[in-house]
Design brief:
78 residues, 3-stranded antiparallel beta sheet, mainly beta, 3 strands
Length: 78
Amino acid sequence: MPIYEYRCERCDTEFEEIVASSDENPVCPACGCSDTRKLMSCCCHGGGGSDGESGAGYSGGGGGGCAGCSGGNCASCH
């Protein structure tokens, strides 16, 4: 099941949620409001580059990039 990012319209809390259907709007974990909006998420595409990298995940100069990231949100580390 995919992970989607949401923002609560009441308290502006941003959170991630695993949902069974992309049409479901989860409840905000901070205030319990069901008026949440799906956000546009950052994504990475594999494909390999001319420098010999495999292209799997973000290669931001660190060890592992997004492929091994546990930050939970690309905005927190990019």
